Structure formats: structure tokens, C-alpha cells
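Translate structure to sequence.
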């Protein structure tokens, strides 16, 4: 009897861990109307699926165009905010007409993904700092 109770408790624990792992993953789709850089690659405008690869708290992201003509895997860092995100969104750093993917947030979550600035983005920011306006662009995404 004790063995059955222990097996049941173990099974319930495993289900809770698996359920929380699923809850921590990211799977969103976004229509991005401009070319943008991720890592050292420039991706064309289009509809993209963004998802984590692996299990709980994975920091590896896969971005893939819906037509499967463009994709990239990139590592991210954890981003945290005291207030939950008010919408699912991709945030881009903008330098003139150049866009660099910066953050990914899911509605209702206080933890998101932050992509580190590449040397290419830093160089673009430095070169264009005096001549062009800097800013951020947000693209609303939807959960998959």
C-alpha cells in the first residue's frame, strides 16, 4: 500500500513539473512588416513563429518564417519586469530604417526574453547615433 501511495505521489509530482515546464515555454506568431536583424543574420519581413527550444526556462529561441524560407536559432537572456506584460509582443530596437529584435514578452507574464546586442547592432548604433533617430518598435504577437 505504501509503495502504491509513493508511486502515485511521484506521478503527480512529475505531472506538476511537466505542466510548469510547458507553462514556461514561449510559442508566438507575429506579422513583421520590415526586414530585421537577429544575431548576425538579417531576416525578411513576413509572418514568423517564435518559440523556445527545450524545456522549462529555456533561453534558446527558434525564429522561423511561416513559409520556412528563413529561420535562426539564438540564445537569449532572461528579462524581468515588476508588472506583467499587457500584451504579447516583440520589441525591436530601431536605428533609422534598421531594426534589431530586442525582447519577446507574453501577455500576463513578468518574465520575458532579452536578446543581447550584437557587435553589428552596437556598431550601427554608434555609426548612426548623430544622424538618425533611435527608438523602439513593438509588434503585437499572438500566442500559438
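Result:
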Amino acid at each position: 500500500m505504501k509503495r502504491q501511495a509513493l508511486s502515485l505521489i511521484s506521478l503527480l509530482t512529475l505531472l506538476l513539473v511537466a505542466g510548469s515546464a510547458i507553462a514556461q515555454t514561449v510559442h508566438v506568431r507575429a506579422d513583421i512588416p520590415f526586414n530585421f536583424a537577429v544575431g548576425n543574420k538579417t531576416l525578411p519581413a513576413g509572418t514568423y513563429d517564435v518559440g523556445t527550444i527545450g524545456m522549462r526556462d529555456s533561453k534558446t529561441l527558434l525564429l522561423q518564417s511561416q513559409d520556412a524560407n528563413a529561420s535562426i536559432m539564438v540564445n537569449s537572456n532572461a528579462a524581468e519586469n515588476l508588472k506583467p506584460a499587457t500584451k504579447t509582443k516583440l520589441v525591436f530596437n530601431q536605428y533609422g530604417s534598421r531594426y534589431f529584435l530586442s525582447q519577446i514578452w507574453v501577455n500576463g507574464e513578468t518574465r520575458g526574453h532579452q536578446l543581447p546586442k550584437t557587435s553589428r547592432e552596437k556598431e550601427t548604433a554608434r555609426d548612426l547615433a548623430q544622424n538618425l533617430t533611435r527608438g523602439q518598435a513593438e509588434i503585437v504577437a499572438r500566442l500559438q
